[in-house]
Amino acid sequence: MVSQQEAVFASASSDGTVNVWEVVFPSTRGGDCKLSCSDSLFVGQKPMVALSLAELPGNSKQLVLAMGGLDNKIHLYCGERNGKFLRACELKAHTDWIRSLDLSLPVYVNGETSLLLVSSSQDKGIRIWKMTLQDSSASNKKQQTSLASYIKGPVLVAGSSSYQISMESLLIGHEDWVYSVEWQPPSTSSVEGIECFQPQSILSASMDKTMLIWQPEKTTGIWMNVVTVGELSHCALGFYGGHWSPNADSILAHGYGGSFHLWKDVGIEYDDWKPQKVPSGHFAAVSDIAWARCGEYMMSVSHDQSTRVFAPWLNNTSVENEESWHEIARPQVHGHDINCVTVIKGKGNHRFVGGADEKVARVFESPLSFLKTLSHVTSDNSSFSADIQADVQILGANMSALGLSQKPIYVQAASTPTDRSNTEGFDTLETVPEAVPVVLTEPPIEEQLAWHTLWPESHKLYGHGNELFSLCCDHDGKLVASSCKAQSAPVAEIWLWQVGSWKSVGRLQSHSLTVTQMEFSHDNQYLLAVSRDRHFSVFQINHKGTDEINYQLVAKQEAHKRIIWSCSWNPFGHEFATGSRDKTVKIWTVETETSVKLLLTLPPFKSSVTALSWLGLDSHSNRGLLAVGMENGLIELWNLNSRGGDGHLSVQNASPAVKFDPFLCHVSTVQRLSWRNPQKSEDSETVQLASCGADHCVRIFSVTIT
């Protein structure tokens, strides 16, 4: 900021140019910003990746622009804020790419006025450069011989002033590339808050997964590392950047996959930096979501190769006792993009089946540490009673170093320490850390989620010829249906698996291309499947005895002109909806055991329909609410009512209920929609709708029914 309403900023690009911009902010609320490019500098074939701008002390009109990049040098340019910038000098010392630069506020020490520049590089080093304003009247005096005079660098000339540059310090402490350095934000020295001074403190973040705070020692002035946070790790990528909070009592790092790591100084008399809770989420398209059987948590899977569990954690510190959603577990960290998930309904322990870009579906079972954590999360302990916990002998799971399976950690084994002696001769820094499953009494931080909340894999389901694409479970928790990517009828068949024994009990043949979504009717009598071949199929499912399943194709019909992406059953009947790339939603009903009838077609939408979810509002009048998600990221709700009062949906009345505000919605394809409870309870006015999208987001909406 060069004044209350004016600012100058610079931008660097991979085309080898650096632009300097001037922006004038509006004097009134709602006015327009005026933006102009005041200069464009071509810096050569090797682009700049780090920039820093500051006003030169003693010469308020002159700005200095420091830039560093792939040529290992720091280039200094000087210029007026709306004039041309001229190359002043360059600083050579780093031996690898420059990653970060930061100029301080002016520093006044021993009658000298100077500006400090800190630089970090992939050579693992941090350098502090001092630009001291030269006193023109003292130029004739005899120079005092000191150590500093021998290591002086070039002189920076800006207008009528000149600045002697010298290297103040070299900071060695990181064991990998140093991605960012940042001066502590300025502090105010006066009550009015006008005078600001520069604290002598630097924060650095590195690929070695640590952040360090550097300060000069009081007596000698030598820069020392005074605070270290993070854990030195070579088995995971480290930090890409670190930042101070405005009042410098917190520091934030960001790592691979957008993960945040926050520490706060909670000490009173001395520094005591403790990790803090931060938001977390996926860092690639979220492909599927599924609610737990009683809605106590939600599970999401993504192309970032992870499965995550989100749950509302009651915030006891707030006045209203409002719940806030947190990631409480990361059951699966995989080596393939995960495409689909289904949570097993029914009694017993929490289980889910996941399908990734591989031919095998994997079954996971909740460990004891998660069950006990869940009892802290929710006040209702009925779904994980003591007898379930007594039966679970697995405390958690370990990630294997090279495999894709997650191995169980048994309760008895956890009590005896494992011998981690390095008998194989492997580098211990490169091995995957041993998981330490613990019961969480507050929302976990990233380090706990990444390693210690995995679920053990209990079964693999072999059978499909291509990558898994869709999964669903019936409402009694007895059957799981799966489909895979397909371009021929034999590959496109749907496999049925018996929960518990995990035997294949059926192979349903109907479609010729990928089955995109499947869903069991709420009485488990029918299985609906929709496909890329523009057809839907309805299968009748009959359980004969314990191990035998009878199934037959009730109807197969070409329903749309383009791919059918989604389907959803009415929770109170045998009506269902299909949504397609042809921008239409159609409502159908299973009339007899051999025919399906089209009830109505909703008016065309503005974009492809990619997700549907039907909420039952009233079983007597068969009233429902259909959530529609589209390729453009928008979500709409539609009222569905039966005309005759008998509750039979012979002809449907459909009317738009609400269009979600675009700022609440996704910015790209809605992949899946799911109501927390498909049937609205009579005593509750609000229901929750979860959505996931290709924009890496999982969103939960609260819908009030009036």
From TrEMBL:
Keyword terms of this UniProt record: Cytoplasm, Nucleus, Repeat, tRNA processing, WD repeat
Q: Which domain of life is it from?
A: Eukaryota
WD repeat spans: 1-23, 557-598
Q: Give TM segment ranges.
A: none
Functional pathway:
tRNA modification; 5-methoxycarbonylmethyl-2-thiouridine-tRNA biosynthesis
> Has the keyword Nucleus been applied to this entry?
yes
What protein name applies here? Answer: Elongator complex protein 2
- Source species of the chain: Solanum tuberosum (Potato)
